[in-house]
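Appendix B, Record 12. Input sequence as logged:
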Amino acid sequence: MNENKGLKFSLIIPTYNAEQEILALLKSCYIQTYVPNEIIIIDSSSTDATYSLVSSLENVRVIQINQKDFDHGKTRDYGISLSQFPFVCFLTQDVVLANSKYFENLLKPFVDDKIAVVTGRQIAKLEHSLIQKYTREFNYPSFSMRKDKSLVPSLGIKTYSISDVCSAYRKEAYYAVGGFDYPIISNEDMMIAIKFINQGYSIYYQAEACIYHSHEYSLSREYKRNFDIGVSLAYYKDRLKNISVDNEGKLYVKYVIKRLMEKYHIILCIKFIVCCGVKFLGNRAGLQYEKLSKVQRIKKSNNRSFWK
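Logged structural output:
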């Protein structure tokens, strides 16, 4: 193990039925140039061998919670409360670290005391489609960027774009703004990014901290995910006043279609357009969630705790 040059940090990984991937991920964490000082796994009562695989590992603390109690904000906040160190990194169970300098590069921007959170670059897994590749090219470019309030007029909602798939937080700043909101159905990372920027902190997109992460979701899964995103945007609409939202979606669609058509992938282009339509419908339905009855809300989302 290499020394972290005085910077101490915890790694928190929420898991659920992760037996196929968690050991490989943990092994890659131990061969980093910066190794986590502690690893906290919060497991949502996995029904596979996840708990038994990780519970006996050295330097790994495993906490089990009921699956129904998982909440994107509350569960991560719980992990931070267990952390013993001034910086906290998050990963999801399905990522693959691109190289041995992931943590070193991710934590590098914290030399600036005004940086509250750093998020890494996501690259599509090789086995996934060009749609996933180009989506991540658009959302996670190859250049790094510091973002603060001055960029809101030009970047709109993208100013607040961070992802807890691969992120790192300064605990002092986290608690200064009140931490994650909860209960929250989705977008806990964007909502705290808004709080950071509104209270004078900066966030940092670190393109040098790379992970492989992508999914090939069904249309029904895409609808549900975007419904949940719409719900979170509607629920916290007061934070998004006077912030451009729709323009970013239009730029994304144009970018991916252009990249697909450069290689004459007409079938993939049609598939992408259909998927975008489903995402749009899900998002718009989520934005109207206040008009639905409680029963209708629960039917549209499995996250029942949000509706309590």
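The chain has a mean pLDDT of 92.
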